[in-house]
Design a protein that fits this description.
It is a multi-pass membrane protein. Its main location: membrane. This is NADH-ubiquinone oxidoreductase chain 4L. It is found in: Membrane. Helix 1 packs antiparallel against helix 2 and helix 2 packs antiparallel against helix 3. With about 70 residues, this protein is mainly α. Helix content is about 85%, strand content about 0%. The protein has a single domain, classed as Helix Hairpins (Orthogonal Bundle), CATH 1.10.287.3510. It is built from three helices and no strands.
């Protein structure tokens, strides 16, 4: 299960990075940046669950990243 989530996350990160580098439109660049942040959040939650499922450090950090991304989009 861990490998599948990491492959999906790296795929999303790669698509977001490619889109961020090649985009000429600001809205598209922000969407690609959000895709990158969501891939990173998937990694935080997955590794937090894999290493210590009793603590919610990865999920809490992901919530902070989502809040920062929402502030950046506003």
């Amino acid at each position: 299960m861990l490998e599948h989530v990491l492959v999906l996350s790296s795929y999303l990160f790669s698509i977001g990075t490619y889109g961020l580098i090649t985009s000429r439109n600001m809205v598209r660049a922000l969407m690609c940046l959000e895709l990158i942040l969501n891939a990173v959040n998937m990694n935080f939650v997955t590794f937090s669950d894999f290493f210590d499922s009793r603590q919610l450090k990865g999920a809490i950090f992901a919530i902070f990243v989502i809040a920062i991304a929402a502030a950046e989009a506003a």
